[in-house]
Structure formats: structure tokens, C-alpha cells
Amino acid sequence: IMNFPMFSIFLAFMNRFNNNPRGLSKKTSKTTQKSLQMVPSTMAETWATLSSTIASIMFAWAIVCQYSPYEVRHLIDKFRQKLKDYFNPYIQICIHEFGGERMKRAEAYTLVEAYLSANTSQSANRLRADMETDNESLVLSMDDYERVTDEFEGITVWWGLRKIPASPRSNYAEQGKRYYKLTFNKRYREMVTKSYLEHVMRKGKEIRMRNRQRRLYTNCAGSIKFSSSSMWSHIPFDHKASFETMALDYDKKKDIVEDLLAFSNNKDFYEKAGKAWKRGYLLYGPPGTGKSTMIAAMANLMSYDVYDLELTAVNDNTELRRLLIETTSKSIIVIEDIDCSLDLTGQRMKKVEQSCLDGEKGKGKKKETKEEGRSGKVTLSGLLNFIDGIWSACGTERLIVFTTNYVEKLDPALIRRGRMDKHVELSYCSFEGFKVLAKNYLNLENHQMFDKIESLIGGTKITPADVAENLMPKSPEDDPEIYLSKLIQALEEAKEAAAKKKAKKSKEVELEKKEEVSAADSKDIEKPE
């Protein structure tokens, strides 16, 4: 439009139109001329004048754009944009896909994309199908230059997906980048900026959490040397455990589930109390009682990622702190068999004894202190700060879970309330736990052999893992009574072995008492009269 020859042609046409306002040729039929004579001459003259004025303005604008300095053109464009914004009743908000120095994908763009893919995918005419990174399902979203409408509390807004076009004035790195454009009426500015956008962000987070593939992380040994790489490696978390399938008493399962749900819904309480939004769980009990399964059930209930922290692969307290920083919110940090991971039991008692022995040897004490400093291992103090120190508040909505087979070996400072807020004992299988396993493995809710199993399992120490192994069918067509009989036999053998062990222990105790009595009598005889 700004080309001078085109304006010349346009101006010539307008001049011709001014000379012949009605635009009639000599060969025009008389009928057409008569019909056009009905149009008032003043209207034709008005249109002719308006056309000539517009042509003159456009011609002048082309001359200004071509020969005036850039500063003048910039001022004119600025004034023109202000004039347009003044008369335009709509406001536009752009949310770009990439931002920041490292050009990372913007969190706001991702949340808007999740929100629109779930709420407007049915109304859009052109859609883009993408495969999730860790999932096998397709996700539908708006295609480029598509526009959809959305409603919120009686107002209508418009969302459009655009791309930054290639232009000499635009940044080369920005060209081709996508952005969402939100358009709404000026009357709803306050509602959109304060309520609607917050609604979009919140719903987008919920949709992402619901649709994402959860992950199981483990720390990489020696990753502290490579500052640019992540300290965690991960795989998809696809464990099927749930509280419904766990061999636990109903009341205990209900108590744990209610505690977990109360934690996830009490964000305001933690903020009001001035506490970090985290909670510690200590799972303890004999091997095979379902501690690892409990962690998987907790993760599935809460839709959390799981970080399996291997303390033996951590070099020092600094690396432990860095691992904590790289964990995400809505996650479970797990340290299994903490009594075996590091020598954290009774460390303070050892230090007290060592300081007493070295009280007279100051040089030896200083030398030992230097050697301990050079050892560079995770200490009890570092682990306590990891759980409950100031760095533990770097994330939100996080569970910390310890498991152990021997709770009495752990330092009391490690498992006190406030660090491990809830202690859960997972003991031997009860009859109620057996019924859950029978339903899971044999699809039995009741059987005539259950009474005998109830009488045996109450006085026998057998783990849920052993019960599940005896109930595991080799084929779906097998008779369930075969496996129930197998379990009864295992219970009778375990009961008999426990009775023999108890009898043997009682004999050893009686023998020790007899030896003590005989030793005391011999001492009395040896005393001089």
C-alpha cells in the first residue's frame, strides 16, 4: 500500500471518479442510467470527496514513511497506537512460550496449555496432537493461529495461539516462538487479572498433576563433580500398590489415610503456624511387613513423585543439602533401612566417650578432629539439618519417610516428634490382613477353612510376605483350597518352630540360673570361717 506507483494509480482512479461521479460509460443502457439517476447527486459527490481525501492522506503517508527520519516515524506510530488503544474496547494479554536468560519454557505458558487442552479441545476446529514424554497417551491442544472462547462467571474471553513472525525489526532468536493471546473487554479488567487468571493457573496445575507420569528418582553417585548435570536420575513410577490391597487392619489404614489427606489439605494451617509444609513418617517393623509397599501406596494416594535417597552414595553434608534443593514439591523423600545406611546410631555417645578418653591428650584430640573433618561423610548433624533445619523449608508439600527393622538402634534425636511426626508400626500378619490377601490372590471373601486359619494366625508370628507367598496361585484354574491348606501347614510349622524356640530359651534361662546359684554356693564355701 505504501508503494508510490500504486498510490498514483489509485489517485488517478479517484480523479476519474470525480470527473464522472456516477462512473457511467457512454455505452451504458438507458435503463441503468435511469435507475442510477434516482441516487441523489449530493451522496455521489460526498463519496467522491471522501475518496479523494483518503487517497491524498494515503499518498502523504507514503511520502512521510519513505523520506522522513526514523524518529519521526516512531513518534507517529506511537501516536497511532495510542489512538487505536483509546478507541479499542478490548485488552490483550500475551503469555510467551519461552522466557528468561536461559530461554526455558515458561511455567505460565505450560499451565495455560494444560488448561486449554482440557477445556477447549472440543470447541477448536484445528488441533495439534502431541505424545507425552513419559506416557503413551496423546494430548490434544490448539493448533497455531486457532482461536477459542472461554466463559468464567458470566464473562466471555478469547484465547488465541500465535507465532512471532519473521521481520527485520524482530529479534532473530524470538522468531517462530509461540505465545497465547488472551482478549477480553475492558469492563472486566479487574475480574480477569485477579480472578480468571488465577483460576486458569490453579486448574492448569491440577490438570498437569492429574495427567503427568509420576517418577521414581535415585541420587547419582559422584554427581557433585558435574555441576551442570542433575544429581537425580529417574524412571517412570508405575507401582500398583494401594491402601485397599495392603494387609493391614482397617483402623490403621484409615488413620494413615486421614492423616495424609489432612496434611495435603492444610496448607493454610502450616502458613499460619509458621511451619514448613512437610511431614515425617517412621515406618518400622520386621522384614516383610510391607514398609516399601506402604511408601508406594502413599505415593499413589497423594500422586507424589518418589525420591529414593541412598545415603551411602552421598559424599558429604554439602552434597546432601544440594540433593534436597533439587527435589520438587509434591514428593516423598525416602531413606530405607536407615539403621544400615550409615553409622548414625549412638554417634553422640561415642563422641562423649572419645572426648573423655582424650581429655588428657589435647594433641590427640585435635588430630582426630582434623581426620574426622577430612573424612567428608554425612554426619548425624547434617542429616538432622536435612530433615528439620532451615534448608528443609526450600520446598512445599513434601513427605520424608524413614524405614527401619530395628527402631531401638536409631538415635532418639533422629526420630523425635517434629522430625518423624508419625510413627507407624508394621507388624506380623493378622487375620484381617489375611482376608485382604485372600481377596487379592484367590478372590475369596469367605471360606470354611478361614476359621482354622483365624485360630492359628492369632498366635503365630508370620509376615504378610510369607502369607502372600503361600497364597500365590500358579494358575487361575487352581482350586483355592490347595493354597489355603498350604498356608495352614505353614502356620502350623511356624507355630511349632516358635514353641521349640521358646522351650529352648526357657531351658537356657534355667541353666543360667542354676550356674549362678552354684557359683554363689561355691563362693560361700570358699570363705574362711
TrEMBL record:
Residue ranges, compositional bias (Basic and acidic residues): 506-529
Reaction it catalyzes: ATP + H2O = ADP + phosphate + H(+)
SMART domains membership: AAA (SM00382)
Ribosomal protein as UniProt keyword: no
Cofactor requirement: Mg(2+)
Disordered: region residues: 499-529
InterPro entries: AAA+_ATPase, AAA_N_dom, At3g28540-like_C, ATPase_AAA_core, ATPase_AAA_CS, Mitochondrial_chaperone_BCS1, P-loop_NTPase
Keyword entries, A-Z: ATP-binding, Hydrolase, Magnesium, Nucleotide-binding
MF terms (GO), sorted A to Z: ATP binding; ATP hydrolysis activity
Domain AAA+ ATPase: residue ranges: 277-430
GO biological process: response to stress
Recorded family membership: Belongs to the AAA ATPase family. BCS1 subfamily.
Full protein name: Spastin
Species the sequence originates in: Parasponia andersonii
